[in-house]
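Supplementary Methods, section 5.1.

A reviewer requested that the exact input to the structure prediction be made available. We therefore reproduce it here, unchanged from the version used in the analyses.
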Amino acid sequence: MSKDETRRFMRIGGKVHGVGFRYYALHHANTLGIKGYVRNTSDGYVEVDAQGPTSAVVEFMALMRRGPMSARVQSFCASARPLTNTYSRFEIRRTL
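The structure derived from this sequence is encoded cell-by-cell as follows.
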C-alpha cells in the first residue's frame, strides 16, 4: 500500500442487474489498476469495494456512477473504508 491509495465502498441501485454491470466494473477496475470486488445483492443493488491509487479510484467511481449503457443508475452511495491488504486483484463475487 502506498500513501496515495484510497478505498471506497459503493452501493449502486436502479436497473443494475442483468445489464453487464459486474463485467463493466471488472473491465474498468483492471484497466485502472483497482483491487477489490463487485457483486450483486439479493435486494437489487450492486456493491463494489475498490482500492487503489486515489486518482484511479476517483475515475472508477465516476464510471460506476454512470454504469454500462444498458444500465440506469438511480442511486449511488460511496463511503470511505480503511485500507486493507486483503485484495490481490479485482474480482466478481457471488450474489450476497
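Residues 20-82 form a domain with the Alpha-Beta Plaits fold (CATH 3.30.70.100). These observations are discussed further in the main text.
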